[in-house]
Amino acid sequence: MQPERTLDYLIIGGGLAGATAAEAIRGRDKNGTILIVTNDTALPYHRPPLSKEYLRAEVNDTGTYGDGGVYVQLPDWYDANGVEVLREVSATGLDAAAKTVTLDDGQVIGFGKLLLATGGSPRTLSIPGAQLAGVQVLRSLADADAIREALAPGQRVVVVGSGFIGLETAASALQKGCTVTIVEPQARAWPNMVSPAVSEFFQSQFTAHGATLRYGYAVVAFGEAQDDRVGAVRIAKGDDMSQTEEIPCDLVIMGVGIQLNTQLAQNGGLTIDPKHGIVVNEQLETAQVGIFAAGDAAAYPDPVLGRMHFEHWDHAIASGQTAGSNMAGGNEPYQHVPYFFSDQFDLSLNMLGYPSADAHITLRGDPSAKKFTALYVQDSTLRAALMVNDDAQMDQLRDLIQRGAKLTGGAAALADPARDYGEVFKG
User: What is the Cα–Cα distance from 152 to 312, expressed in whole angstroms?
Assistant: First the structure.
């Protein structure tokens, strides 16, 4: 099918990776035509504040991120830079050989270079009552608006899942005066990433702020109050349906992960890794020349873990920049030490690298003072660092992780806050 129009650069996905790629393209190519296609109703925005400042109504939806708002760029920027954003439209078909994309409104768009920044869709639970009003996910700005409107002092909120989105929304709800219960099927917080002692530290912060924790429990049904609205959550201890509990609620927030959006790429004949998404090379280009991927759904080669994907803010920016630059004629390898952050109550969390439960984890600092760093050493190599209100050495730790620095100073030196990291790691 002949395209109705052909763009130099077509970006599918209006999230942070897509918007950052557009910025990078325009930085190299001042005249090429750029179109961003997004199924969202809004211009590209940052997701981190949606579970934190935006949810607590501390920032608005009129400014840019870092300037009292959530947006990547204000509307005038797109006009001034010749970047078209087509909203509330989804891409339904990709013909990689013909270099065309079909949209759900019937348009066929041709492209010179294509970026797939399709991200992911929030997972839900296939259990009774999951479609009731008041059972919310948090992925989009519209989701955050619905939850923010519902959060009020005294409201009973059940948060399902205690990943970062779950705990951030739980913290925000508590700060808004809600009564909060956190339900998580795993035995403790982040068991694949932190030690039992660190799990206990984070869990204790939530109980201190009034949350009720139900670790080791699975949600089995949502109960209806009236008018097709959720009124209770039924949970069971593990797989033992004889140990059930019903939690009355006014709102449910599900934070149970995302499903990578790879169907468009798969239908277009691109290679998909079932676990990590759209397979790309070091330049974030697929095996089909001229088609790139960035953000959550890009399965890129990593020097430590091999092929991987990463579902966090910093990766969306970094991969979007690299992909956009390479689409416009660059040849940059994507080199990125994984990084993500979270804010919960008065805790600022920064995680660098590759945390693993198999690593030897050493705490430096004082958890009772809410200031410490957990250092992950595996095969004598520094692989990750979790900093809690303790990020002064973040750049140094990032460099050591990137270089695969080896522990030479011993465990006691590693735990000593007075010792510089450069003294205990070499290489």
Answer: 29
The per-residue pLDDT string of the chain (427 residues; one tens digit each, 9 = 90 and over) reads 789 999 999 999 999 999 999 999 999 999 999 999 999 999 999 999 999 999 999 998 889 998 899 999 999 999 999 999 999 999 999 999 999 999 999 999 999 999 999 999 999 999 999 999 999 999 999 999 999 999 999 999 999 999 999 999 999 999 999 999 999 999 999 999 999 999 999 999 999 999 999 999 999 999 998 889 999 999 999 877 678 899 999 999 999 999 999 999 999 999 999 999 999 999 999 999 999 999 999 999 999 999 999 999 999 999 999 999 999 999 999 999 999 999 999 999 999 999 998 899 999 999 999 999 999 999 999 999 999 999 999 999 999 999 999 999 888 999 999 999 999 999 8
Write down all domains in the chain, each with its CATH number in brackets. Answer: 5-121+258-327 (3.50.50.60), 135-254 (3.50.50.60), 346-426 (3.30.390.30)
3-state helix, strand, coil in the chain (%, to 5): 25, 35, 40
Q: Which amino acid is present at 411? A: A
Selection from 112, 114, 113, 103 nearest residue 1 by Cα: 103
- For the full predicted model, state whether its pTM sits above 0.85: yes
What does the alpha-carbon distance between residue 246 and residue 86 come to, in Å, rounded to a whole number?
A: 45
Note whether 383 and 356 are within 8 A (CB).
yes
Q: Which helix (H) or strand (E) holds 49?
A: none
Q: Is 166 in contact with 202 (CB distance < 8 Å)? A: no
Q: What stretches of 5-107 adopt beta strand conformation (E)?
A: 5-12, 34-37, 83-86, 91-95, 100-103
> Which residues are bridge partners to 85 per DSSP?
36
CB 54 within 8 A of CB 146: no
Structure tokens at 174: 């508590």
Q: Which residue has the tokens 């092929």?
A: 307
User: Any bridge partners for residue 366, and if so which?
Assistant: 371
Give the residue carrying structure tokens 């650069």.
9
Under DSSP, the state recorded for 199 is: H
Q: How far is CA 333 from CA 54, 263, 282, 290, 297, in A?
A: 34, 26, 5, 16, 18
Q: 327 vs 54, 81, 97, 248, 322, CA distance in Å? A: 33, 17, 17, 52, 9
Which token pair is 178?
Answer: 């809600």
Helix (H, G, I), strand (E, B) or coil at 387: strand
Task: Quote the CA–CA distance of 331 and 100 in Å, as a whole number.
Answer: 24
